[in-house]
Amino acid sequence: MEKKRLLSLDVLRGMTVCLMILVNNGAGEHIYSTLQHSKWNGMTPCDLVFPFFLFIMGISTFLSLKQTNFAWNRQTACKIAKRTVLLFAIGLFINWFDLLLQGRALDFEHLRIWGVMQRIAICYGAVSVFALSINHKRTLPLIATLLIAYAMFLMLGNGYAYDSQQNLIAQIDIHLFGQAHLYHKSPVDPEGLASSLPAIAHTLIGFYCGRLMAMARTTEEKVLKFMLVGGVLVLIGYLASFGLPLNKRIWSPSYVCITCGLAATCLGLLMYVIDMKGVSRSRLTFFLVFGTNPLFLYVVSELLSILFGSRAWKEELYGTLHAIIVNPYLASLVYALLFTLLHAAIGYPLWKKKIYIKL
């Protein structure tokens, strides 16, 4: 039973990482809107991938630390600290690699401090410390406190202002780190420090769902719990969106609830299909390839994306595809699909040989 439950999680993780790579690697100037992040308020399917990953990481953190009985000791603390630092350092390396290929290897004054891996590091570290330090019965009150506090912060700090000079979230990051070290294609850094608070709450929701999963006695009970939690969170998020619109850039509370709700629902459906209906494992191979080495393949995708872009390989390949496929949107999608399949080819032998590269 445990093996099947973990299989469901691996499949959802694989789907998420696969889509992360796909949506991050469109080519040309014409990309389907569904494969682009919303500019500000609102949400596209593309805006689901990163929150799904944080939700899954919350569940995985619970399952991992449960093996140590959530005991706070030197070995576990060192493991958490090392992984947190490693993830953050990898994120910095990705940003530096971009500068390197631009011929600006020593331009540390413009090195972006934040990014996807850095946010993963902060959320993992914070939730792991919570898991070892605080009674897990306080998970829901803590999540509610974090999201309510952040909602008040947004309202009092003009958090929805599309102007970095007026938006307190942006101003905090600017004053702490400097504009040169932040993301420049949005009024606020979408992975900055200030908006990490709701992202931690987001990961804690996944942690709470991991606890629900462990407490369930049967697969049917797990499915029902995830579907119920998913439905409740989507409803809460929808109601909250009337006063606090969905917004990935600032990681709004409504965005947290709806994306976590959808992730819980998807996991419940996968448990039903895989664990209860017994879908053949061979049919899941493609997503298991991504799900068993998720962060490794994501990091490789980021480095290759930077390399392809800096060497004009991306432009040349897209140009070749566009010459064959007249529709520029379709040509861009085909490029992204080929790029994703490249990573499936990289990950397949690792999965086949049961080599799991843990970051």
From TrEMBL:
Protein name (record): Heparan-alpha-glucosaminide N-acetyltransferase catalytic domain-containing protein
Pfam families: HGSNAT_cat (PF07786)
Domain Heparan-alpha-glucosaminide N-acetyltransferase catalytic: 5-218
Keywords tagged on the record: Membrane, Transmembrane, Transmembrane helix
Organism annotation: Segatella maculosa OT 289
InterPro entries recorded: HGSNAT_cat
Listed transmembrane segments: 7-28, 48-65, 85-105, 111-132, 139-161, 193-214, 226-244, 250-274, 286-309, 329-351
